[in-house]
Amino acid sequence: MTEDQERAQARASALLGLIMVVAAVVVLVDAANLRESDDALGPAAAPTLIGLLLGVLGGALVVQGVRFLRTPQGSALDPRRLRRLAAMVALLIAFALVLPILGYVVSSAALFAGAALLLGAPHPARVVAYGWTLAALAFLIFDRLIGLSLPTGPWGF
């Protein structure tokens, strides 16, 4: 990886960290507004923990990216990275559009496989198998065990 690519990656990491910190603030504010409970762990326990972890990790990414960027060196955008980023954004938009039509499992498996292949996964057949497995497990856990309703699509999953 060239130094220009490393600097672009550091900028992207710092930006992602900043977004994570903002999301952490939103999660923590929402968690603070949840109703009180007499239970030892009320409804705000999990969101508070997630918000704190999100904020710490985001802050660490920001600090790491800024430290790296303070070293003097010019940088240029790599066209391959921009195409990969555009493809990832298109993949996420396609996921949002087909989710209500095809259901969670099919849409999530396609998203996982597409993202992994865009990031350079070496074995496409394994990636597809892993995508289906992860999506099906997530569906079973959230929809069947926890009771959170996920879009089912025409096949019922």
From TrEMBL:
The organism named in the record is Actinoplanes aureus
- Give a yes or no for keyword Membrane in this entry: yes
Residues spanning the membrane: 12-32, 44-64, 85-107, 127-146
Keywords (A to Z) from UniProt: Membrane, Transmembrane, Transmembrane helix
| Keyword presence, Membrane | yes
One short Pfam family name for this protein? TctB
* Protein's UniProt name: Tripartite tricarboxylate transporter TctB family protein
Where does the DUF1468 domain start and stop, copy by copy? 16-151
